[in-house]
Amino acid sequence: MSFLWSTLGGESMAGEDARLAFQRIINKLLNINLKAKDIYPVYDYFHSTRNKPNYVFYAEVKGIAIFNSLKKTNLSWFTFGETVKLLFTSQTKQDIVVGQRVISAKWRDDEAKKL
């Protein structure tokens, strides 16, 4: 099982739930059709620089998808360990650290249930 971590962003439509906005944006940008049951919240906070709420989600995907690149942008899969080499803002780095902890905790819980 692979996990989708995306630093892609987007805006929700009027009245749209943040989880549904994530689902729509990932589908539009990456052509990955996520099921709502496979999308998990990590946390949310008020982003003072953007002056709006920011939501962090992750999604379970059945396999690593090959997707078409966005115009003028190359997309690639990264492990959490590889993300430390990438240039991100301190807030995005914090989002990744918290996301990794949440995903790892869920994975441990899921493995314990199998025993």
Your description of this structure?
- With 115 residues, this protein is an alpha+beta fold.
- It has one domain.
- It has helices at residues 18-30, 80-83, 90-114; strands at residues 2-4, 39-47, 52-61.
- Strands 1-3-2 form a three-stranded antiparallel beta sheet, sandwiched between helices.
- It is globular, with a radius of gyration of 15 Å.
Q: Which features does this protein show?
A:
about 120 residues; alpha+beta; three-stranded antiparallel sheet; 3 helices; about 35% helix; disordered N terminus
Tally of discrete structural domains = 1
Number of helices: 3
Mean pLDDT: 81
Biggest sheet strand line-up: 1-3-2
Concise synopsis of the structure shown:
This protein is of the alpha+beta class. The chain has one domain (2-114).
How are the SSEs ordered, and which strands pair?
Blueprint: E1 2-4, H1 18-30, E2 39-47, E3 52-61, H2 80-83, H3 90-114
Antiparallel strand pairs: 1-3, 2-3
